[in-house]
Design brief:
Blueprint: H1 2-39, H2 46-65, H3 70-91, H4 97-136
Helix pairs in contact: 1-2, 2-3, 3-4
Length: 137
């Protein structure tokens, strides 16, 4: 079991290094493509969305490699999905669904932040109260 974890971490580490190495080149190429299409008269913001998506995937890879908690990864996914919905609304429109999606995202974001506050209180609450009582005594 331990050998599989080491192998998985090695593979994740390799993907992280490759993504970190080649992300600037891919981003620059997509920006250059965006500028060329803009000069030709096309208003295409797909390159922006691709750069954000690729960068977010790299951040998720690093979060997995560095063993960040699941909540941290949920915040990353929450941000990426919000960006995708914003672009979808910009290009195609959401119509009557827009208000429902906004309320859903507000609810989900509130749930994430509430969970984060509870997690901080559970993880660090005892340490903070212990440090305060030591200072007062």
């Amino acid at each position: 079991m331990k050998n599989k974890e080491v192998k998985l971490n090695h593979i994740l580490g390799r993907y992280c290094m490759l993504s970190f190495k080649y992300l600037p080149y891919i981003s620059a190429f997509l920006i250059m493509l965006h500028v060329i299409l803009g000069l030709m008269g096309f208003c295409v913001c797909v390159s922006e969305l691709l750069i954000i998506t690729i960068a977010t995937i790299v951040i998720l890879l690093w979060a997995q490699f560095l063993k960040f908690c699941f909540l941290h990864k949920l915040f990353i996914i929450y941000s990426l999905s919000a960006i995708w919905i914003i672009y979808f609304h910009r290009f195609l429109g959401l119509g009557n669904m827009l208000e429902f999606i906004r309320i859903g995202y507000l609810y989900f974001g509130t749930l994430l932040f509430t969970t984060l506050i509870i997690k901080f209180k559970v993880d660090y609450g005892k340490e903070i109260t212990d440090s305060i009582t030591k200072k007062n005594s």
